[in-house]
Amino acid sequence: MASSWCWNCLSRLRLTPQALAPSATPRISNAPFHSTALRYANPVKKKNTTLNVQKHRVSASIKKKKKKPEQRSSGGGGRAMSPAERRALKKRIVLSNPNALEIESMVDLSAETMVDSRLRGTVLGLPMPMIDQLRAVEAFKPKQGWSVFRRPGTVLRRDTIEMGRLIEQISGEGDKPQKGKVVKKIVNGMKGSGKSVHLLQAMAMAFLKKWVVITVPDARDLVCANTAYTAVEGTKPLQYIQPNAVSALLVRTVEANRDLLAKLKVSQKHPSLPMLQPGSTLEDLAKLGFNDPAISWAVFQAFWAELTASAPAAGLEKGFVARPPMLVTVDGLAHWMAESEYRDVDYNKIHAHDLYFVKHFLSLLKEGDSLKNGGLLLYATSLSNNPNPLALKIAMDRLAAHQAGISANSPEYPNPAAYSGVDERVLEFLKPAEKAASPLELQILDGITRDEARGFFEYFARSGLVRDAITEQWVGERWSLSGGGIIGELEKLGRRFRAASA
Amino acid sequence: MTPRLNLFTARAASALRQSTTPALASRSIASPARFRAIQPIQCRWNSSRDGSKKVEPQPDEQNFPTSDQLPDVSEEANEISRIMDKEKRCDGVPSTPELDQGSPVEEILSRDKQAMKHMPKVMQDELKKSGKRSFSTSARSRMPEVDGVVPNADGPSAEAAAALAEMIKQAQSPVVEENPGLKFDEPVVPQNVKTLNYRNRYDTLQEQFTKLMMMDGKLTKAQKNMGIILEHLRTSSPPQMNPRRPLLDAPPASQMPLDPVNYLTVVVDSVAPLFRIRQQKGIAGGGAAVQIPMPLNLRQRRRTAIRWIIDGSAKRRDTSFSRRVAAEIVAVAEGRSGVWEKRDQQHKIGISGRANLSTPMRR
């Protein structure tokens, strides 16, 4: 085709400057719009030229694609568990097995049966209406074997009956009433010896006697740096409060003691809580701290002052009811006897005794009537996830020595080894007091006796879980295997699947 | 007194000795008592102990690595002298058994007039007084009629003494009977409790199932999984039985969760196939395989069923392996599982392949 340009015109055409001519490649300018796609577009793929291009120094063997191995992390094609699901499964507490046989003549724990020494060695069922209260205070632990029986029950062992009598005394009943007495105990014992269940039994008895029950189900939760903490200004050394943990404590306490707290009216003045309506109950007071962590510590202090009040303040006498005794339990005490996982501004570890929450509950163990209306303090150690602080061990040895009548000057009195780096703060705190009105005691839980073990296994047999004849010899074998009646081991032996004999 | 069995054998053997058969002669008493006494030790305690094939080990077949086959010199000399002595005699009194069992001195003396003259005075007096031979106290004391009875042949009050003896016996007897040298009752060791051995502490099927679940040799993990499975069977609701898929020897459904090991056993045994199918090539010709049913023993049947159950569980959606297997076991019990179809298929092929059983399978 002929060009529309004529020769003349072409000859007149001059070379234009480089800048004005459109370049062959797309021009990338500083234009703010629509340049990105161009810039970051994938480079054009090369054609597959394996046939043409000879690769040198590469082995020429055929590469077979490897088959991906089957996902066998959990043995097959299940979906992975989400962390929340896993946690829920770990914390799940099952209290009933509908397949287990119902025991006809099972006696419930009650104010009469809890001190009846004739029932020693039998398994007493926990009253069904109380189960929700016990669940609220987190008395049941996931690894305890409640899930194989029809309904939860506990063995009435010697320590239980003694504790029942003590609770009866403090309530002002029984043979030797001592109303208003405060008993402080550290419960220790081997793993599986029933420390947590001992606390559970104490809670059940306290609920029966209409006490206020306040629990710390796992002491570790307060020192493992999982809940928020804020420093309190003006304290020296710097102290910290854990508002969310306090809220949770209030929720727990109100849930479990609702009936009782709804009847008790506020009887003290609380200037720090201006929103508190006059004439409200303790339940209303505690509810203030449920959702507002900012004031939860103040609410707790007010709540505690109300529970330990022995007389109403001036002007608030109307409708004052005497406060009931209290049961305070802590499980896993060892975590509070070391440095916590929290850090201060200098990134040093905060000692557990510098946390207000911890300090409050530990201060109850100190000499004096920490509970004005009487009550029982049970602080148990736990051997699962145990930080095992040396100071606590020595302190408990000292308590035992003090109970055995060994004086602090005697050479048998336990002392830390030189340069052992023991926590002096803890040792000082738990030092046994001379001539105390309500001394700190150490209670050791041992194995149960053979007779009690027999009652325990009869409970298994009646539930249809053990099919052998429960004889002296049979029980004796298991009692020996369990290290002398350690009840956690007995329970494992009872539910274990073994070949049928003969 | 020690039993004199050897004397009878000696007599019997002396008759045998006249036989000329060397084999019989070799069995004679010429073999020392030492060997005869230890024969039970030689007995092999194997599984086929009873039966007619039991062979008495010959005395001259004894092979001790540390002992000679022949008796030692003194024994041999004794043996020879005894035989020589006996041949000289003709009264038939057996020769000295001192070597074998030890005779009372009186017995020896009774044979030897010369020695009787020189025997101690005490013994002479004894012989004169009673007119009976004395007895070895050690041997007599073991005899039951002597034990506890005061021998009192003569005396003014024989009846009183007898009554006294009776009283003593009565006083002593319960003690002797109840506690023969033991403070408490003798412990009774159970004879056939197989669980006494720690290796057999679990049920056979439970153990087989556990080991088939094991991966990478992690037995403890498999055992833990088995624990979760049994716990699931124990706590989950009783299976709703399908009448088309009946379980063998099953207790009522409501009772099954109470015995989870039995539950598991019933389920596995119910879906276990009776045979496997062997694909035999080269019989039919043309490259086609012939399907021949081969019978399985109990353990093999169970193994197949367990493999099917574990494979069937892989398709489930539960999160953990143990939960999947447990759910599959419950599904089998309720007749919902695909394992039943597998078993039906296997049996169908087997029934159609029965005709092939007549073909010679030996190679």
UniProtKB/TrEMBL annotation, chain A:
Skewed-composition ranges (Basic residues): 54-69
Gene Ontology MF terms in the entry: structural constituent of ribosome
Annotated region described as Disordered, given as residue ranges: 54-85
Coiled coil start-end: none
A single Gene Ontology CC term: mitochondrial small ribosomal subunit
Compartments where found: Mitochondrion
Keyword list, A-Z: Mitochondrion, Ribonucleoprotein, Ribosomal protein, Transit peptide
InterPro entries per record: Ribosomal_mS29
Family from the record: Belongs to the mitochondrion-specific ribosomal protein mS29 family.
Protein name stated in the entry: Small ribosomal subunit protein mS29
UniProtKB/TrEMBL annotation, chain B:
One GO term (biological process): translation
This protein's UniProt keywords: Mitochondrion, Ribonucleoprotein, Ribosomal protein
Listed Polar residues bias regions: 60-69
Keyword Ribonucleoprotein: yes
Region (Disordered): 42-76, 126-152
Subcellular location: Mitochondrion
Signal peptide stretch: none
Cited function: Component of the mitochondrial ribosome (mitoribosome), a dedicated translation machinery responsible for the synthesis of mitochondrial genome-encoded proteins, including at least some of the essential transmembrane subunits of the mitochondrial respiratory chain. The mitoribosomes are attached to the mitochondrial inner membrane and translation products are cotranslationally integrated into the membrane.
Family of the protein in this entry: Belongs to the universal ribosomal protein uS7 family.
Protein name: Small ribosomal subunit protein uS7m
Organism listed in the record: Penicillium salamii
